[in-house]
Specification:
By secondary structure, the protein is mainly beta. It has no helices and 19 strands.
């Protein structure tokens, strides 16, 4: 089956950025869009403050707080979502405790629906997205599901648009176009063996996480 696509167009002036779709539904004016705030060339949804913070958070299947392991030298900072003041560092192979976590999104993924797409999230609340609908994808949950802002409501949606960590079959028909790449960071509050506490932004190559589905302790690759 031939994939249906809508072309994205941008018109920039000295005062504004106009965003729309070749299929005739401008983002911000389409069904459920609400994208009426554009800062520079960053699209933000109406009705939701940014940076957006999801708390508590531990994205990924089985992700758990508790004992993690540093797989490289890792810097720990005094305050959450603030790298201006480092307090201590973790050495490779040093275990540490994770006390809390939060996702800070400074910019959402913006997904424009290109064909009718039915969704049933983790909460089993069904919704049918139509071409021209706009979703603001904020944070990853697990197993291909995300938190997304749609029509002034937070939904859990399964990925149906191009995503860097998803490799569908060659004949898969995407149901949406990625209009804007988002920016989000997973921060965790940590404590080392000496009792020092702070916050670190999670780089998955630098730490091994605890997993509730794996009885073995974290280990570096």
């Amino acid at each position: 089956m031939k994939r249906s696509r809508c072309s994205v167009w941008l018109v920039t002036t000295a005062l504004s950025l106009t965003i729309g779709l070749g299929c005739g539904t401008p983002a911000g004016r389409g069904r459920g869009a609400g994208a009426d705030k554009v800062e520079g060339q960053t699209i933000l949804p109406a009705g939701l403050a940014f940076p957006y913070v999801k708390r508590p958070a531990c994205p990924g299947e089985g992700c758990a707080y508790g004992t993690w392991l540093a797989c490289d030298s890792v810097m720990v900072y005094a305050r959450e979502a603030d790298t201006s003041e480092a307090t201590f560092s973790l050495a490779r192979d040093e275990p540490f405790e994770v006390l809390a976590g939060a996702i800070h999104a400074t910019r959402p993924d913006v997904v424009v629906v290109t064909r009718p797409t039915h969704q049933i999230g983790f909460d089993e609340s069904g919704v049918l997205f139509q071409p021209g609908d706009t979703l603001f994808v904020l944070s990853y949950i697990a197993e291909g599901f995300f938190d997304a802002w749609y029509r002034d409501t937070m939904l859990e949606v399964e990925v149906f648009w191009p995503w860097k960590d998803w490799y569908p079959p060659d004949d898969f028909e995407y149901g949406g176009e990625l209009l804007q790449q988002g920016d989000a960071t997973f921060w965790v509050q940590v404590r080392n063996a000496a009792g020092h506490e702070g916050w670190l932004p999670v780089e998955y190559a630098s730490v091994a996480l605890a997993n509730s589905l794996d009885p073995d302790p974290p280990r570096c690759q």
